[in-house]
Amino acid sequence: MDREKAYEVIPHHGVAEIRFGMSSGEVESRWGASTRKFNNFLGDRTEVRDAIIVACAENGTVAEIGFPSSYANVMMRGVRIFQHDYNRTIVELRAFDHDAYEGDGFIVFKTLGVSLSGFRGDDFKALTVTAFESGWWDKSLEDMGPLS
Predict the structure, then answer these.
(1) Do residues 48 and 34 touch, judged by C-beta distance below 8 A?
(2) What span, in angstroms and rounded, lies between the C-alpha atoms of 120 and 136?
(3) pTM for this entry
(4) Which residue of 11, 19, 100, 108 is 20 to 30 Å from 92, comparing CA positions?
């Protein structure tokens, strides 16, 4: 995986050339073989490529794609996700999505289809962003409050 490449998040559709609903084989043909496979703490089948995670829905297709801050060029609608002013990222994404929630260390922009973690802390290395298919976070949102 190329940490210098620009990865554009397309709301509820995917990231770069990976689309939600693709099979693991389709992801492998574009991004190469995974280096690790496991079930995450929610029980979702997850594959790792370098530090990028690809989580699959029950039907085995891609449902969420996550990046750590070491992938500096993750973008969405012109917003550089991993800019060093974390609050600026939140404010800029909020301008596109007022249906946003916060809880348990996560900020979820439901309309944009992205979640942020670590953005309320002070450790740049702990930041992550995930892009997700429509509905993926809906159950978790029940336990979160509106982003203020």
Answers:
(1) yes
(2) 22
(3) 0.94
(4) 19
For every residue of the chain, DSSP letters joined together read --TTS-EEEETTTEETTEETT--HHHHHHHH---SEEEE-TT--EEEEETTEEEEE-TTSSEEEEEEETT-TTEEETTEETT-S-HHHHHHHHHTT-S-EEEETTEEEETTTTEEEESTTSS-GGG-EEEEE-TTTTHHHHTT-EE--
CA 65 to chain centre: 5
Which class would CATH give 7-140?
A: mainly beta
- Give the Å distances, CA to CA, from 54 to 23, 37, 60, 72: 11, 10, 11, 18
- The domain limits of the chain are 7-140
Do 65 and 22 form a contact (C-beta atoms < 8 A)?
no
What is the distance between the alpha carbons of residues 37 and 46, in angstroms, rounded to a whole number?
6
